[in-house]
Structure formats: structure tokens, C-alpha cells
Amino acid sequence: MSVQPGQEPPASDVKPYCEITGFQGFEGEMLRLRNTNRDNPETLAFLRWRYERAPDAPEPLLFWLLSPQGDRIGMAAAIFHAYWVNGERVQVAVIGDISVDATWRGRGLGQLLLRHMSAHLGEHFPRHPALVIPTDSARRAFVKIGWTTAAALAPLVYLLDPARYLRPVVRSERLARGVGHAVRAGARLLVRRYVRPGDALSLSQAPEASFDALVRQISVHAAVRDSAREALEWRYVRHPHTQFVFATLRHAGEPRGYLVFEESTLSGTCSIYDLFASSPSDLRALLALFILRGLATPGLASVRVLLDERHPCRAQIRRLGFISRSPETVLQVHSRDGSAERIAWRVSQGDKDT
Q1: Strand partners of residue 48
Q2: Buried-most residue among 103, 143, 146, 294 (CB within 10 A)?
Q3: Per the confidence metrics, is the pTM higher than 0.70?
Q4: What separation, in Å, do the N-terminal and C-terminal C-alpha atoms of the chain show?
Q5: DSSP designation for 294
Q6: Cα–Cα distance for residue pair 189/92, rounded to 1 Å
Q7: Among positive and negative, which fits the CA dihedral 35, 139, 47, 354?
């Protein structure tokens, strides 16, 4: 059952129950419950950034699981972000911050909470699809309540420093360095084939005004996150913890593509969160120049990009020598009318809820 904040559940109800609130006024409770049940504690500043409402989006919603005594023992959240869905700009409910107190797990209460959340979104936001990129335990719960797995997310990895990976195999520092040097030299020759006269790469701390014109070229036959400059600034420039960098491809001075990356989270790894190019040749040139930058950067061992397995960029990325790894997680979707399940979602690491 669900009650409004401040309401008491019926005296006869001795089971955990659900409650719905907004984010404002419940920040402290959310931070406490989240940090109690996660290995990576967060700050209030991070939550305030994450739950910032876009001007044209519905207010974020918190779905609480309460014990019979009224203690908050679980939660999930829906934050609305703009996506282009088959050519129409739609606010999508992105689900995150799913947590159940450790002492209450194993009783099906996570399913109770997520089922209640799904029913509320379907009733009050019927034209807004919902999506989640879940942990493995949350994935199983979403499957049981009827959510659809729309895509698997698998990383593509480019080895910048083969010697680091060869050392444990050949057990010879000299041999590893020699083979690694030869492989890196060959890699430079290979990727330079995709760099055209007039191509250049520039780095900046913020998105350029030209990005708005670039993303208007997105295909209308899929669902992709809105990459307007305001959305990119919120997601990457104003992130409380991580420093992101924008790499822009220009051909004869004209912007033709960009990617967003960071090098702080995984030691020795450069992670690409977003990428866009006007054409396949522009994408190859963008990544080729970015690989050449990585080969010249001391301490970098690999470049990593996480995309859904049917993403149209994957084929071009593989051509440059990226290795496809096994899927790490999935995208799950839900909507009252079943439309979300029929959409071709195009997802990257930038779609994750943090």
C-alpha cells in the first residue's frame, strides 16, 4: 500500500509499506539511507546536483519503503531527463538510488517497492518511458516485476600500452617492452590511415556552441539522450566529483564531432562517456586522433567506451582496433503502453544515473 507523507498506515497493517515524496526536504534521510547501504558514501552536494530539476521536466520523485514502525528501510528514485524518441523530445524517468537496508533483504521487499514505483509512474506519467541501468541484484528484481531488457551494455577497449598486459604472460620485462613498442608503432600507422588532411582535435573543459547544431543531425529512428549544450554542461561541467574533458574534431576548421572523456576514475584508463560524429568517416577520424593522443600520454594503458551492443558506432570503433568485451550490465525499460519496449535505445556510459 502507499500513504502520503505524514499519514499513519492503518493499525491493522503490520507489513512494510510504501510512501512517495519529492526530493526537497528529504535530502538528509536519503543521504543517510544511501550511505548506510552502499560502499561508496556520497555527499549532500552530490545529491543536490543529481536531483536538480531541468526547467521543463517533472519534479524528481522518491519512492520509500517503510517498516511497520515507520522507519525508512528502502528507496528508489525517478529523475526525469530529456531524450529524443523517434524525433520527439520526451522526458524519460531515469531510475536510480535503489537501496534496501541489509537487515530487510531477502524478503521480496525490493520487488514490492519497484512494483509500486512502476505502477505510480504508469498511472501519473503514462507518456513518459522509464529506464534503468541496474546492478545485477536490481536487474533480477526488475525482471520479476515485468520490466523489459532492451539492450546489453558491453565495453570496447583499446590497448595503448600492450607491455603492461604482456608482462605477466612473457615474464620478461625486456621482451614485454620490445613487443609492446612494436605493437604501438604499428597502431600509430594503422590509426593514422583514418586521419584526413584538415582533421584536427582540440580539448576544452566545456561544450562548444557548435554542438547544438551537430546533435540536430541525430537519427529520428531511435531513442537518444538530449545532448543540448545545457544538458552537457549539467552532466559534465558541473559534476561534483569528476573532471570531464571535451574533445572536438574539426575538419578544415568546421566542427564535425566530439567526445567526452575522463581519466580519473580507473587508474591508467581513459573512459569515454559520450561521442557523436556527423558521419562514419568523421567518427573514425575523431577516434584515431584521440588514440594518437592516448599513445602520446604517459601512464595511459587503455581507452574504454561503453555502448549498447547494437549501437551504430560499434562497427566503426572496432575498425580502429578496439576489442569488444563481454557485457557488463543491461538497459531495462518500462512503459504503460509498451512503447518503450519497442524503441531502439542508443545508450552510452553517459546515460547512467550518476
Answers
A1: none
A2: 294
A3: yes
A4: 29
A5: H
A6: 43
A7: positive
